[in-house]
């Protein structure tokens, strides 16, 4: 018995140590980028371990003062908020509709959605389609194409099918229609999976820049990811700007190309991190419940 207890204790300690090392390996690179972006670039070049060197916010100030950054942040936020709301509503409504046996060709429609997970027409047909729909240099390009996503529909449909059928039957007896049932019953009972989908959709909307790259040339519609991508290709020129200011005797700190890259990474990453704390309690529950059945 004693040997068994010692073995169990050793196994538990080993698990904690191993998982702690894995957690540290996952978190530390991001933490390193964060402390580097807050450090004096000239001191950070000597190596960082746990704390910033020469703590300052000049890196962020300099980058946020670049042209088009403010307007691009507004576009990215609007894209993320509007796109996420539209995706969640359309996918949830579509998933609810294909659970109804009265829907003609229900199985064909659902299988057609599943097929989209495996087949993709490619970049050129996508570009021509978006252009023919008048979405070039149009804000709707950011929100309309992602309104229905096959993977989200599958998760939500599976979740809805696990809800008690008696709830809908009792609502219909009271005179409620399908849309009323969807809005007042199904939608609120599906909040765990909806929160999960909202996280996926928000992260995807915030990080996507390819549609911006191929179809948007209007500076007023550029997202922050695209603007920072363009500046990322000009890191040396941005760093040279601070050297010129120092030569003119203006109050500024020299920014190195590496500091520009680190700070840009944090600027893009930090905003989306605020989504998780509000939806974390729904995330795992909704994903597991929505994936029980195929």
From TrEMBL:
Its main location: membrane. The keyword 4Fe-4S does not apply. It is a multi-pass membrane protein. The keyword Cytoplasm does not apply. Residues 73-279 form the ABC transmembrane type-1 domain. InterPro entries: MetI-like, MetI-like_sf. It comes from the Bacteria. The chain crosses the membrane at residues 12-34, 73-96, 108-127, 139-160, 181-203, 259-279. CDD domains: TM_PBP2 (cd06261). It is found in: Cell membrane. Keywords: Cell membrane, Membrane, Transmembrane, Transmembrane helix, Transport. This is Carbohydrate ABC transporter permease. It comes from Cohnella cellulosilytica.
